[in-house]
Amino acid sequence: DSGSKTKRRTSLESLATKLKETMASQEGPAPGNLLPPEVCSLLNPAAIYANNEISLRDVEVYGFDYDYTLAQYADVLHPEIFNAARDILIEHYKYPEGIRKYNYNPSFAIRGLHYDIQKSLLMKIDAFHYVQLGTAYRGLQPVPDEEVIDLYGGTQHIPLYQMSGFYGKGPSIKQFMDIFSLPEMALLSCVVDHFLGHGLEFDQAHLYKDVTDAIRDVHVKGLMYQWIEQDMEKYILRGDETFAVLSRLVAHGKHLFLITNSPFSFVDKGMRHMVGPDWRQLFDVVIVQADKPSFFTDRRKPFRKLDEKGSLQWDRITRLEKGKIYRQGNLFDFLRLTEWRGPRVLYFGDHLYSDLADLMLRHGWRTGAIIPELEREIRIINTEQYMHSLTWQQALTGLLGGRARAMHTPSAHVSRRPIRMRSRGRCITKALFNAQFGSIFRTFHNPTYFSRRLVRFSDLYMASLSCLLNYRVDFTFYPRRTPLQHEAPLWMDQLCTGCMKTPFLGDMAHIR
Ligand SMILES: [Mg+2]
User: Fold this and answer.
1) What are the positions of the active site (predicted)?
2) What distance in angstroms lies between residue 292's CA and the mean position of ligand 1's atoms?
3) Residue 360: CATH number of its domain
4) Which domain holds residue 301?
5) Angle 239-251/264-274 helices, nearest 10 degrees?
6) Is the pLDDT of residue 449 over 50?
7) 474 is in an annotated binding site
8) pLDDT at residue 221 above 80?
9) Residue 416 — pLDDT band, cuts 50, 70, 90?
10) pLDDT above 50: residue 441
11) 193 Cβ contact partners less than 8 Å away, ≥ 6 residues apart
12) Which one of the listed residues 67, 210, 268, 355 is annotated catalytic?
């Protein structure tokens, strides 16, 4: 009736007034001024972001992973991996012909998701081990929140420490961390979709293992290496920039080394393409088929030298020589032979666990993470739509926080409207990144599990190695001092999303 409508309108108006008052009195600037768009549009995808203060002046030795670090691959690789693994499943693992109708969907999954094998659930988990509601999928279908909560004993908390190992490889729950896992998740979801859709009985563990093995076959049997070798122009991105990064470091007297799990012939062809036939002159040490991450932890595997034809030599390795190629080995021998210890070494890799975790936790090298997704996510963060959506959410959250403090307000009279508006807004923001799973860095207000690992294991992170070209070789990265919850935000950059202190933002506005 009209009476209650008027009442509702009045309460909406008072809500808006209250919102403005709350923001003005307690939370800093009014919502409209919270995020000056001209500031935030300067967030640059080619910037390097620091978790920890680091001065490049102190770094004498630069180490690199190869795949997805020195060699950045085009996304066209993903559908090819998907198709090849799907066909291997049909032809070698005798899976139903019906799965051939599935094609790779590049916008289905994101990196860092967890998979519960027994429950066939693909889901996004936050830094506190809670599944983000609305991000659990079985096959290609979303699983209702109530069902997810029911499956985990009445809570959305996932007991990861019981179910998954440190490297996300536990018995029941796996975390998809590398970039190859995008086609893997997509294929797994399609196969589960087919089996469920056709009412076929299956063992979840067998199905998971077969899909994983089929994807691994694409690598191990060398299919992927063949594709890349046959058309480097198509698959390898920014090779010139990789060359520029490496040669600039050498010109400034830095030592370089390479530790990769890939075989020599593959790395050699790629490096010849990017750098030229003399690429080995840039590196002090080259190690192939290193078997990371056990390279960092297992002392028993000795280095072996390869001759020019790639055959193994049997002599004992007492020093690591420039221009030679070594296979396997371990980090303990590497440290003993090179004496490259501690914070004067900076190692770049794309895999948070296989490349960076042990170096950060056990050996004290500085680390740089290559996260290609940053480029796209920053472009989304720079859109007006995202900024408005986030500003509105923050304003509502501020209002809710302010209201919670007003203890005298009888709870029966508190409108649930801001809560509903906030959750609707959060879903809209999530879908800007990925309709199913949202951003790889955020689950609504919290960091994701992936994000927390990224912050813990890397000093620096960036979309691609080429971002280094935007900084001097003696540059010091200062992370923004983000206030802890019990600290007061004192500067403007802490009141807004805080992109103002990102180095060189003004100068870099023209890049890419
Ligand atoms: Mg890699």
Assistant:
1) 65, 67
2) 10
3) 3.40.50.1000
4) 61-72+233-369
5) 90
6) yes
7) no
8) yes
9) confident
10) yes
11) 102, 139, 140, 141
12) 67
